[in-house]
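Researcher: Next sequence.
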Amino acid sequence: MAKRGIEDKTLLEKFAIDFVSVVERHAKYIIVSGFVVIAHGRSRATEDIDMIVESMGLEKFSSLHKALLKAGFECIQSDDPKELFNMYLTQNTSIRYIRKGIFVPEMEVKFAKDELDQYQLDTIVSQINNLQ
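Model: Next structure:
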């Protein structure tokens, strides 16, 4: 079976590839929910992608957040990494990133919350390779 080229990617897939290419330089992550089905060729309407990242401290999260901003993404809740970390992520609440000024699609990001999330992070194979 021939591998699809980037020109065959949907807007959602291209967004995911661009986003995870930044995240993978800073943290372990998994993509969950409906996007996984879409990436493997099934039809499903969705405007967001759900991502679980490894739990991390404020300094590491700030570095990740700044890298995402530099890559052209923005968080719709706040630009302040300390606020995002303390008010959302450490409270098991997700934050949402979009391409700057473009509200669809979006990436919903949250920290691993339990042993199952952590197990999946520890045993995952790079997902970006499956998207390209």
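Model: The chain is about 40% helix and 20% strand. Residues 1-6, 35-44, 126-132 have pLDDT under 50 and may be disordered.
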